[in-house]
Design a protein that fits this description.
24% helix; 10 strands; 177 residues; two-stranded antiparallel ribbon; alpha/beta
Length: 177
């Protein structure tokens, strides 16, 4: 199940809420630059998949540092050498399912010559089901979201979810829906 949407739409927060624990980093601005899978495993671990398709173990702090501003904040560029991250959790409740947190399509940063939009599109088009996250405070599904969704595989089922809906009053929330 791939989670897509604009930059800072609330994809990682929604995944954390569904899993019932913080598995994705949400306190960091700017946000993570890598597609990140959350899945079940025998023990908690975080891995990166490098550009040679080799698995590299990552600590929680290393995973949290893989943002668009990694070089400025940490003096490193590890995220440029990774194509994806895998957050494995022993208590992930769905053993035959994986959640995929994609970069926001509206980010402008480049990773290995690819844009966030191209990375997000490739990842979303590989999913069985897509959850499209929209910030309810925007008041509507933005035209940019509609344009991006139109470029994705139409055969993949899509569910639109409003994030931050709890920050609206009942009438404003109803108007957005």
């Amino acid at each position: 199940v791939a989670f897509g949407g604009a930059f800072s739409a609330g994809k990682s927060s929604l995944i954390n809420a569904r899993v019932g624990q913080q598995v994705m980093v949400v306190e960091v601005e700017p946000t993570t630059a890598l597609p990140a899978y959350v899945l079940a495993g025998e023990q908690d671990a975080i891995y990166g998949l490098n550009l040679h398709r080799l698995r590299v173990a990552l600590s929680e702090d290393e995973f949290a540092s893989l943002t668009h501003d990694e070089k400025n904040l940490h003096g490193s560029e590890v995220s440029r050498s990774l194509s994806a991250a895998f957050v494995v959790r022993e208590n992930f409740p769905w053993p035959n399912l994986a959640f995929l947190d994609t970069p926001g399509y509206s980010g402008q940063s480049q990773v290995g010559g690819r844009t966030d939009a191209s990375i997000a599109a490739a990842q979303l088009n590989s999913a069985h089901v897509m959850v499209w996250v929209v910030n309810a405070k925007q008041g509507t599904l933005p035209e940019t979201d509609i344009d991006f969704l139109a470029r994705l595989d139409a055969s993949i089922p899509k569910l639109v979810v409003l994030s931050r809906a709890d920050q609206l009053n009942d009438s404003d929330r109803a108007a957005v829906v």
